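Please check the following.

. . .
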Amino acid sequence: DSKPAVMSQIRVNFTEECEKVINQLIHKLQEVAEIYQTMACHFQRDDVAIRGFEMLLWRRSDQLRLRITHLIRYINMRGGRVQFFDIPKPQQTEWKNMVEAMQNKLTLEKEICQLAEQLYKVAEKSTDPETQELVHAQILPEQSMLIKKIADSI
């Protein structure tokens, strides 16, 4: 972690702790997007193909990449610094069936939600209403709806 020699001129009420948790969230989203791509590749194979399921996985991976871009821009807008980490190769590359994949997907989305909730608490403790609003208005509602939708389909 290299610290910038000079603090950004636009940084106002954006703590290093908030910045750190947003960077952790970005990293988690990158990991999950890679896992969804791996799942999509698996379910697109001719010997496994479940019509339409792979498209849902590709779409979610794309949605996560858009969220990553949004969070990177948010950190820069607040005068923070984005930290890039190595993205590990997905440990699992095949699934027995769609139910197993959906259970895995549910776990991943809950992990994203937990990190978003952690960010909200850090922002609240830091008296950072901008970050609280970001999490409260954009990230948590999407995660809650998605978790419910996945759970209902298992």
User: Anything to note?
Assistant: Residues 111 and 134 are 18 Å apart (CA to CA). The chain has a mean pLDDT of 95. Residues 16-44 form the longest helix (29 residues). DSSP finds four helices and no strands in the chain.
